[in-house]
């Protein structure tokens, strides 16, 4: 485990506002877990598997609070603050090692006499297709011959490779934390890579690879997030 990853995926849980939404998503998750716990994206998002986890439920007693979320397997830290805008944020409870996509963590209330905001801090990041190749060489060579592996060149050929409207489906993680920003800044995240379909796998590379696994899912919503609309209306 490397506890020193940059902390950059954040999501604020506002207990009052998340209730009804959480109930709906949790219902869907219970359905999914009955089907052998294959990863299912929360919605058809352009770009494939989303980087950020979704908080699915929240409950509180006088002494502790329980968060449940759905996202990549890996290390999560619940953080608390009395001020959601200015912070400061302090860790609440220990680091959760989520070895499944659906996970819950119970943390003590920092101070039962005060109102607190909580958020979920995850420090995962996108590696690159090259970084997977060393261990998954047959998958890598398979992928390198697909149209996915040259998807950004397709845009470059028609001078659209800087058009933000095109990048979510022709690069890895554009618009998401640690994802593609430009060829100069993120040359390792060009084209449609492994992590569009498997999710950001930094945690997988630098941890116990059999415990922390990327998504390996045949849910059509992952392909359908990109193969959609005018590009592929009938996927
Ligand atoms: C240092 C070696 C190593 C690297 C680098 C690596 N993996 Fe893995 N990966 C493993 C091992 C080991 C397993 C577990 C195999 C098993 O137990 O069946 C695994 C499993 C997987 C699985 C299968 C998960 C499942 O539930 O079946 C996927 C998908 C995967 N890796 C994707 C990736 C991606 C994407 C990258 C690059 C971002 C990557 N891996 C980098 C070693 C590695
Ligand atoms: C991140 C977006 C994204 C995801 C997720 C994605 N694709 Fe694609 N796919 C593309 C893009 C972009 C191209 C076109 C690349 C090019 O031509 O340069 C493409 C091309 C293809 C092609 C080749 C089509 C042709 O005309 O040669 C196939 C087949 C394909 N994808 C299947 C899939 C399947 C199956 C999945 C899910 C398992 C999937 N894709 C997931 C973006 C995506
Ligand atoms: C919602 C995801 C998505 C977005 C956004 C997107 N593409 Fe694509 N693009 C795809 C997929 C998927 C394919 C592969 C379609 C196939 O071959 O079946 C593709 C293929 C292509 C191709 C090659 C095949 C063809 O249709 O000629 C070009 C060129 C292309 N896209 C250009 C663009 C441009 C330009 C933009 C921005 C204006 C853009 N794309 C935005 C998903 C997307
Ligand atoms: C277009 C989407 C897509 C891309 C891109 C992609 N994969 Fe996969 N991969 C899948 C799907 C879907 C499965 C699940 C297949 C199944 O369960 O039958 C899978 C399965 C796997 C598995 C585990 C199962 C096995 O057969 O061993 C590994 C490991 C893996 N992929 C690694 C990679 C690596 C490494 C890359 C990049 C070099 C990559 N994948 C690129 C969609 C993708």
**What small molecules does the structure contain?**
heme C
Number of helices: 8
Report helical residue fraction: 10-25%
Kindly give the count of domains.
2
**Radius of gyration, taken over Cα atoms and rounded to an integer in Å:** 19 Å
Q: Kindly report the CATH topology of the largest domain.
A: Immunoglobulin-like
Supply the CATH architecture of the largest domain.
Sandwich
User: How do the helices and strands follow one another from N- to C-terminus?
Assistant: EHEEEEEEEHHHHHHH
Unreliable sequence segments: 1-36
Strand content: 15-25%
Structure, described:
This protein has 2 domains: 9-122, Immunoglobulin-like, CATH 2.60.40; 129-231, Flavocytochrome C3, Chain A (Flavocytochrome C3, Chain A, domain 2), CATH 1.10.1130. Mean pLDDT is 83; it is low at 1-36. The N and C termini lie far apart (39 Å). The protein is an alpha+beta fold. A hairpin with a 3-residue loop joins strand 2 (54-60) and strand 3 (64-70). The chain has helices at 15-34, 129-133, 137-144, 151-157, 167-170, 194-198, 202-205, 220-224, and strands at 9-13, 54-60, 64-70, 74-81, 90-91, 96-98, 102-108, 117-122. It binds heme C (4 copies). One heme C (HEC) binds next to helix 4 and helix 5. One heme C (HEC) binds at residues 127, 131-132, 134-136, 194-195, 198, 201, 204-205, 209-210, 213-214, 216.
């Amino acid at each position: 485990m490397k506890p020193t990853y940059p902390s950059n995926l954040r999501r604020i849980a506002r207990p009052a506002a998340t209730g009804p939404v959480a109930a709906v998503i949790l219902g869907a998750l219970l359905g999914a877990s009955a089907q052998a716990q294959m990863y299912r994206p929360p919605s058809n998002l352009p770009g494939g598997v989303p980087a950020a986890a979704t908080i699915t439920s929240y409950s509180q007693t006088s002494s502790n609070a329980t968060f449940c979320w759905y996202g990549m397997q890996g290390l999560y830290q619940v953080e608390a603050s009395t001020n959601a805008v200015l912070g400061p944020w302090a860790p609440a409870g220990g680091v959760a090692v989520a070895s499944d996509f659906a996970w819950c963590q119970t943390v003590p209330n920092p101070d039962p006499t005060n109102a607190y905001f909580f958020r979920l801090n995850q420090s995962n990041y996108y590696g690159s297709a090259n970084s997977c190749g060393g261990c998954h060489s047959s998958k890598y060579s398979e992928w390198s011959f697909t149209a996915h592996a040259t998807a950004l060149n397709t845009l470059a050929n028609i001078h659209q490779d800087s058009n933000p409207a095109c990048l979510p489906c022709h690069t890895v993680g554009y618009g998401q934390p640690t994802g593609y920003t430009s060829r100069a800044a993120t040359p390792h995240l060009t084209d449609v890579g492994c992590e569009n379909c498997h999710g950001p796998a930094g945690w997988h590379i630098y941890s116990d690879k059999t415990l922390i696994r990327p998504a390996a899912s045949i849910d059509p919503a992952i392909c359908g997030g990109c193969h959609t609309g005018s590009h592929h209306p009938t996927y």
